[in-house]
Every structure is written in structure tokens, then in C-alpha cells.
Design brief:
The protein is α/β, with parallel strands linked by helices and 256 residues long. It has helices at residues 20-31, 82-94, 109-118, 137-146, 179-193, 197-201, 203-206, 210-213, 221-229, and strands at 4-8, 37-46, 50-53, 99-102, 126-131, 155-161, 236-244, 248-255.
């Protein structure tokens, strides 16, 4: 059975960097069993109705500004997967989750930066899904849970976001880690490993420095979506954790 993954996508410039995290993601893509398709929730595709891509050939979206010119030259020409799109719609319907198709939108940097590191040849079909920040944390988990059986069909489910993601708190010159960011992630690690969903669903009230770590929820939501997809076995493993710019978390979680 395929795992589900939560992968922090960091800043867009991650696509040009060579560091321990990019090396880890490149190696992870080589070590995972080759998936039939990838289903990816990106923090940068938000909608109040659950959207699922039905695009045949994706354009690359540059949904950022002020970065290196080379970033705007990168292409990630992934193809869609009609069979998986249809199965996702069926699973959501069975779970009572309203869903609509999107046949236009390309892949934003929350998707292609991660995918390009994992599968640089763009040779795995992709189905992109939106996130809805206005659902409760329990509902986010249930959205992921509705897709759990995809893993039995050799489909890799990925949530792309960031556990500590506060652009106003970044220190672009810092080589260290802000204690408040580490405290939040350590609390989160404890609750994920113990699969304490009750606490996780109330992280914004219980976790230290939650408001600083998660000023808006769209980057945190993909973690709950990926975790929900791993509900069957309830096994969480932290594969990587590091930080950039003082507090921007670069973490990867696997749910078996």
C-alpha cells in the first residue's frame, strides 16, 4: 500500500536550491514505489467547494513575485489522470462531500516545486485538489479519510503546505531556529506520532505559539488531509525536519 505524505514546500526558491532538504526529497522520490498517479492538495489552491482537476496537460503557474528570474523559466509538464479523477469524485460522493471538476487550472508552486524534486521527469500523472480553509480541522481530516482507499490502488496522496508558515516572522539572514517555531513543531510531532486527533483538531487552542506558527490555516490544512488518508493504520513517521529563515519549517511526514 502506498503511504500518504505531508511535504512542506518552503519558499518557491526551493526549486533552485541544493541543500539537505532538496537532496532528501530527490532521494525519497527514488525510494518510494512508483505510483500509478499522484493526488496532491496544495495550500495555494483554495476554494470553498472541493475542486478536483480534470486537466489533461498542466501549465506551470508562477504564483509568486520577486524571486530569481530562473524560477520563471521552469516548466513541469505533468499530465492528468482521468481514471483517478473519476475515482476521487466517486469517493467524495460516497462520503457526502460536494465536489466539482476544474479543467483549466495549472499546477501552482505548492505542487510543482515538490513534484519536480520527487519526480523530475514529470512522468507520473497528477491530479490536483484544492483546499478549503473554512472547514473544521475534523472535517479536513475526513476529506483525506475519504480518499484513503486510493493508496490501495497505487496512488500516492500528498498534502503540500507547511507546519510553521508565517511570512511576517521570517528572518532572511538567520541561520538558527526560533524557539517558538521549534516548540510548536515539537508539540505537533508528539500528537502526530501518538495519533492524538482530539488534540490535533484543537491545535490552535492547545499548541504553544499556534497563532504565530499558523496565522492562517491554508498551509496547515494539507497536513490534516494527508493524515486523514492514513487513517486506516494510524502510523505517523517524521522523515525530515529543518528550518529556513529562522522559522519556515521544512518537514516531511509519512502516514502508513
Amino acid at each position: 500500500m502506498m503511504p500518504s505524505l505531508f511535504i512542506a514546500h518552503g519558499a518557491p526558491s526551493l526549486a533552485l536550491e541544493e541543500n539537505a532538504y532538496t537532496e532528501f526529497l530527490q532521494k525519497l522520490g527514488q525510494e518510494l514505489p512508483k505510483p500509478k498517479a499522484i493526488v496532491l492538495f496544495s495550500a495555494h489552491w483554495e476554494s470553498t467547494t472541493q475542486l478536483v482537476s480534470s486537466v489533461a496537460n498542466y501549465e506551470t503557474i508562477y504564483d509568486f513575485g520577486g524571486f530569481q528570474p530562473e524560477l520563471y523559466q521552469i516548466k513541469y509538464p505533468a499530465q492528468g489522470h482521468e481514471e483517478t479523477t473519476a475515482e476521487i469524485k466517486r469517493l467524495f460522493a460516497n462520503a457526502g462531500i460536494p465536489v466539482e471538476s476544474d479543467s483549466v487550472r495549472g499546477l501552482d508552486h505548492g505542487a510543482w516545486v515538490v513534484l519536480r524534486l520527487l519526480y523530475p521527469n514529470a512522468n507520473i500523472p497528477v491530479v490536483a485538489l484544492s483546499v478549503n480553509r473554512y472547514l473544521s480541522n475534523e472535517q479536513q481530516y475526513q476529506v483525506g479519510q475519504a480518499l484513503a482507499t486510493l493508496r490501495e490502488q497505487d496512488v500516492l496522496v500528498i498534502g503540500s503546505g507547511g507546519t510553521v508558515h508565517n511570512l511576517r516572522q521570517l528572518n532572511w539572514e538567520s541561520a538558527g531556529v526560533d524557539p517558538w517555531a521549534m516548540a510548536f513543531d515539537n508539540w505537533l510531532q508528539d500528537k502526530l506520532v501518538s495519533w492524538d486527533t482530539e488534540s490535533l483538531f484543537a491545535y490552535d487552542k492547545l499548541a504553544p505559539s499556534a497563532q504565530a506558527a499558523v496565522p492562517t490555516p491554508e498551509h496547515f490544512v494539507p497536513l490534516l488531509l494527508a493524515m486523514g488518508a492514513g487513517d486506516q493504520n494510524k502510523q505517523a513517521s517524521l522523515l525530515f525536519k529543518a528550518y529556513q529563515y529562522g522559522n519556515l519549517s521544512l518537514s516531511c511526514w509519512k502516514f502508513d
